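Appendix B, record 7
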Amino acid sequence: MADIILGIESSCDDTSAAVIRDGYLLSNVIASQEVHRSFGGVVPELASRAHELNIVPVVSEALRRAGLAPSDLSAIAFTRGPGLLGSLLVGTSFAKALSLSLNIPMVMVNHLQGHVLADFVKEEGKENRHPAFPYLCLLVSGGNSQIVRVDSPLEFTILGRTIDDAVGEAFDKCSKMLGLGYPGGPIIDRLAKNGDPERFAFTKPRVPGLDYSFSGVKTSLLYFVRDEMAKDPMFLENNKEDICASFQKTLIDILMGKLVRAAKETGIREVTMGGGVSANSALRARLADEGRRRRWNVYIPEFKFTTDNAAMIAIAGYYRYLAGERTSLDVAPVSRESDFE
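Structure tokens (predicted):
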């Protein structure tokens, strides 16, 4: 009998539902919230209200595309955290109600684990490459920057993490400083393609071990732009592409420097990445290049699996379901869940 998992993701501002049968993706539906653009960032109250409106039609559409009825489901995987508490509450409450009505189990999933396991989502007619265990994952997003050792679908060890800001936050704040808009990552990536990444130099932090820091890079950019604008009011407008390219290269240098060190220290040559920032074209190219030079086996996720999506929650839940994990109805969402509990 097939194991069919409905995944529900509602950790931030995307409402998503996906259906997986025996590890193969049947559908993956995402409803994004454009309302946050005008505020320059996600507004938690608006996000939770939008989830309330989107959750039923998104789940219904995921089942329709999969060609299945609710009664066909084996279990429901849902994001417990970390994320925005109000948003998580919508997804968790819906999962509980559906679990009760269908009399099927729930499986809670750590949102970060979903990103790390995104490479294991299989699709019919595709090569479906995925890393062998153990492997290293560079997890980069708006809220997290980590290097994770993965020994199985249920075993994760964080080797390094940011001690202040995440790299995605650095991209967004840089974009805001430069008046470019939100979300900052895609905007900076686009402008950087026409810029000179060697034109300007920004401060790189000296953090021991495999941990990251990005606050000093942002401060370096802030003071640099301020000082140059004082000398030439048109400096930013005339140099924004080079600024974006140079700032982006600095962030990628920091990320890759620690990843290379982690690979050397562990001897692991299976390397992947996940999270929203893994959609950055320069980072993807840099990881592929490092893999060729260092003879790593590199796995770069498809763009559709880099942002928050329910396919990654469904596949993480699938492995937990196979391992016999079940979640009770008294579970509550948590905004700052301990890493990989």
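Remarks on this record: The beta strands are 4-9, 15-21, 24-31, 75-81, 106-110, 135-140, 145-152, 155-161, 270-274, 297-299. The CA atoms of residues 41 and 238 lie 26 Å apart.
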